[in-house]
Amino acid sequence: MKIQVPRNMLAVRQHSPDGKPVVETIPVPQPGKGEVLVRMAASPINPSDLALLKGGYLDRNYPFTPGLEGSGMVVGSGGGLMAGMRNGKRVACTPNPEADGTWAEFMVTSAMRTIPLPPSVTLEQGSMMVVNPMTAMAFLHMAKTGKHPAMVNNAAASALGKMLIRLSAAHGIPLINIVRNSTHVEVLKDMGATYVLNSQDRLFESELTTLASELGATLFLDAVAGHHSSQLLSAAPSGSTLVSYARLSGDPMNVDPGQLIVGDKRLTGFQLGNWLQTKGLLFKLTFINRVKKQLSDALSSQISQTFFLEDVENAITQYTGNMSNGKVLLLSNQKD
Ligand SMILES: NC(=O)c1ccc[n+]([C@@H]2O[C@H](COP(=O)([O-])OP(=O)(O)OC[C@H]3O[C@@H](n4cnc5c(N)ncnc54)[C@H](OP(=O)(O)O)[C@@H]3O)[C@@H](O)[C@H]2O)c1
Q1: 291, CA 20 to 30 Å: which among 8, 128, 131, 328?
Q2: pLDDT for 22-62, tens place per residue?
Q3: CA pair distance 139, 18, nearest whole angstrom
Q4: Averaged over 180-197, what is the pLDDT?
């Protein structure tokens, strides 16, 4: 069935750093060679989207359409074998570097940045297939290949944190989860997490040091930065690696160089795109297939609420006030 593509579409547009995103009518973009036109169905709001809206995270020319992942149906191809093969497929998708994103009724992207979704995966769940599931799997891969006996993760009540809890249990790698309030301690324990520490507790640092030493935790995953990084590094056993993968506190990392020099600890960064670029085609194909197979269980994300694009401001408010309750999705109005 040939799908009629309108000339214009609704899109969320960001006009300046830290400004409010607005919804505008703009022309539907045209795919070039090797690219596809995706009729968007759903996109999550992730912390990286908030960082993008604030400015200074990824390069963008203003105005631009935010949204770093989503799902939809391929309704047009600009030519080329892969783009042609994607036509008519339900896909998870990410935008081209520095290009307009997923918070719109249509998006053009490289066919290479689309992943066909299995019939068992809904478009809503599929819209969250890339950023967190692949990062959780990447962390598991790092733990295994680095022969880390155990891991530590903070901001652990996040969607990503919950995936890591399920993966670590399934693969027998102990995980110390750090959250910042007692409600989240209970939530994570109820879902089966064995080790959950509250960073607000008076004895937090000594408990973390003891537990990390007992379990031999040498992979420390840090999404918070600020003074949390120095707490993690000083609790880490000698020979540990601290991986900085986000900056939720908004603060620069505060690290005592002595921890790196005398304590023989390493500090590194992680960004999913950069990590995937270091892998060959066969690894990527196998990796994506593993992610697909677990999307309905270990790598699923809870959805707390959905909003139409027009309601983006309320959607962001709802998400930022309740990040641990599940993902807020933006839905497009376009239907079959
Ligand atoms: N580098 C990469 O390639 C990559 C890829 C995927 C994800 N990430 C990062 O992974 C993190 C989790 O992503 P997500 O989508 O799973 O998150 P999410 O589900 O939206 O949840 C965000 C979590 O961060 C916690 N949080 C927010 N501000 C915090 C602070 N200042 N200190 C401590 N905790 C704080 C929230 O806890 P409260 O309920 O206590 O607010 C919540 O549990 C994000 O930082 C994201 O940017 C990075």
Answers
A1: 328
A2: 999 999 999 999 999 999 999 999 999 999 999 978 888 99
A3: 31
A4: 97
Question: Which residues are 330's β-sheet partners?
Answer: 43, 307
Identify which of 242, 323, 327, 329 to mutate to test ligand 1's pocket (most ligand atoms within 8 A of the CB): 323
**Pairwise CA distance, residues 163 & 298, whole Å:** 6
Check if 325 has its Cβ closer than 6 Å to any atom of ligand 1: no
Q: Is the pLDDT at 211 greater than 80, yes or no?
A: yes
Q: Which one of 3.40.50.300, 3.90.180.10, 3.90.1170.50, 3.40.470.10 gives the CATH number of domain 8-128+301-331?
A: 3.90.180.10
323 lines ligand 1 (CB under 6 A): yes
CB 247 less than 6 A from any atom of ligand 1: no
Quick: pLDDT tens for 257-280. Answer: 999 999 999 999 999 999 999 999
- Ligand 1 pocket, residue 334 CB under 6 Å: no
Ranges assigned E (strand) in the chain: 8-13, 22-27, 35-44, 70-77, 90-93, 106-110, 114-116, 150-153, 175-179, 195-198, 217-222, 241-244, 266-269, 303-308, 327-331
Ligand 1 in contact with 243 (CB < 6 A)? no
Residue with CA nearest ligand 1 atom 45:
246
Domain range summary for the chain, segments of one domain joined by +: 8-128+301-331, 131-274
CATH 2.60.40.1220 given to domain 131-274: no
